[in-house]
Design a protein that fits this description.
Strand order of the largest sheet: 4-3-2-1-5
Largest sheet: 5 strands, mixed
Strand content: 15-25%
Order of helices and strands: EHEEEEH
Shape: elongated
Helix content: 25-40%
Radius of gyration: 14 Å
Number of strands: 5
Structural class: alpha/beta
Mean pLDDT: 84
């Protein structure tokens, strides 16, 4: 049985490199991304899941995972109020992860 890792932010710079590295080592990767159709690579051992933090996460992303790397981060705020809202939700989202 292969080792399975869940990675949030899998379509980002860091997350995509982590996915490729774990795949190259024979791991199964459960990739959390905002839009699974936008992953720019595929692999038989890669399973994408919707993960649009801080508002939405497909909790099955974490099922059957032996480990999790949280590489997702919201960086595009348009107002201070939005940044504060996301920060509050982020702490709640970490509890889920």
């Amino acid at each position: 049985m292969k080792t399975t890792i869940a990675i949030t932010g899998a379509s980002g710079y860091l997350g995509s490199h982590l996915c490729r590295e774990f795949l190259s080592r024979g791991w199964c990767v459960r990739a959390g991304v905002r839009d699974p159709r936008k992953l720019d690579f595929s692999d038989p051992n890669l399973v994408p899941f919707r993960c649009h933090l801080p508002d939405e996460i497909d909790e099955t992303l974490l099922s059957e995972a032996d480990a999790c790397i949280h590489a997702a981060y919201t960086t595009r705020f348009t107002t201070l109020a939005e940044a504060q809202r996301v920060t509050r939700k982020r702490f709640k989202g970490r509890a889920i992860l």
